[in-house]
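Appendix C. Worked example: Auxin-binding protein T92
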Amino acid sequence: MAARVTPSPSASGQQRADISVVAPSVRRGSGGGLGSGRVPIVRNISEIGQDSYGRLGLSHMTIAGSVMHGFKEVEVWLQTFAPGVRTPIHRHSCEEIFVVLKGSGTLYLASNSHKNYPGSPQEFPIFTNSTFYVPVNDAHQVWNTNEQEDLQFLVIISRPPVKVFIYDDWYMPHTAAKLKFPYYWDERCYETSPIKDEL
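Step 2, the predicted output written as structure tokens:
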């Protein structure tokens, strides 16, 4: 970190010192991630790329990623679902926390991971300024059931990169769920970057 002191005259003609602190960038890929280059400590979120990854009505932005930026402990996404858009029924071996920024919808959660299949899910309404979490390996689905407006939320996951098991329905056996790894937003990084050792 570096501090810069710049002398400048004040409105009354007296000298004053303007101090600006310049923070270093975090090196992408330091920590085992696959990305390369530098990630600034402070970024303008409107300058971060978004993509639908072929899913109509989805906008996904990786704010802090394991594969993309080299983060080791958590990953943060900003997602927007148009009315009617939903995730597949899925589970993963990481904790997941959501913060709803705008809109409303429904969380479907089957906390029956000890059974052979997810079973009938519980329904939880989600809404602006609500937060919810999904326990490790619980099958779930987030759905924008509001026909009038987009659903937007921050997603924080532990233990990245995420390995997702996708179900065709709530009664599909756990052993038949299909592994999707790397997940859609990590695929390009794996295609273009060599795998690096954590050390």
